């Protein structure tokens, strides 16, 4: 049976200078869900995502991951979550394998299990031969792949990604989508922002649309789109909201 994996309740974020980037946001994502988060540039997606994974402080609202408060139980939440930012900041002076070993240490993934997971994901993303090279020498897409692999090593219950498909080649994009589906089939949940509406439409069973810090539509993909495309729905709700 599915259960709430991410609950964002009455979340409001004011940045310095009084900018309200998120205004009373409520989102629930259950195990088994792949939820797309869409909205214009500056709508509040990264703000919401960063608060959800505990890297951005907030004053109003509550965020729970698998029932644990991001504020009160940050370590517990981080143990079960993986977050891939839009521009992953990974240690450039390490080699790929050193970085993956470091992340495995942090999450207590050891021995054969560690070896198997690194091999599995490095092989499917086609970067096994580059693991011995310094990350500094990697292309943007290779860095993305290392960040994705490091996120998958501890098999998170909740995977949160900010614009994950930017810079990935078509094969890596396909692979990441397959991994997301597989994870959700095993009871995890995925929440990601994207501007690529046709990917979201095909991949996600749920969608949340945000505009100027407020949720303007959310629900299952079927409920929202019916016989229309997600692009049509997005343009319609967007033009209907001031
Ligand atoms: N550190 C900050 N200080 C002040 N304002 C900020 C800060 N970070 C973001 N904002 C503002 O908050 C609003 C929401 O930004 P956010 O980065 O969450 O948008 P987004 O939906 O992720 O946009 P994009 O699609 O361009 O990545 C914007 O108006 C932005 O200028």
From TrEMBL:
Signal peptide range in chain numbering: none
Gene3D superfamilies given in the database record: P-loop containing nucleotide triphosphate hydrolases
CDD domains noted in UniProt: ABC_DR_subfamily_A
Record keywords, A-Z: ATP-binding, Nucleotide-binding, Transport
GO molecular function (one): ATP binding
Superkingdom, taxonomy of origin: Bacteria
Domain ABC transporter residues, every copy: 6-237
InterPro entries assigned to the protein according to its UniProt record, in alphabetical order: AAA+_ATPase, ABC_transporter-like_ATP-bd, ABC_transporter-like_CS, ABC_Transporter_VariousFunc, P-loop_NTPase
SMART domains in alphabetical order: AAA
Protein's name according to its UniProt entry: ABC-2 type transport system ATP-binding protein
Naturally occurring in which organism (per UniProt): Eubacterium uniforme
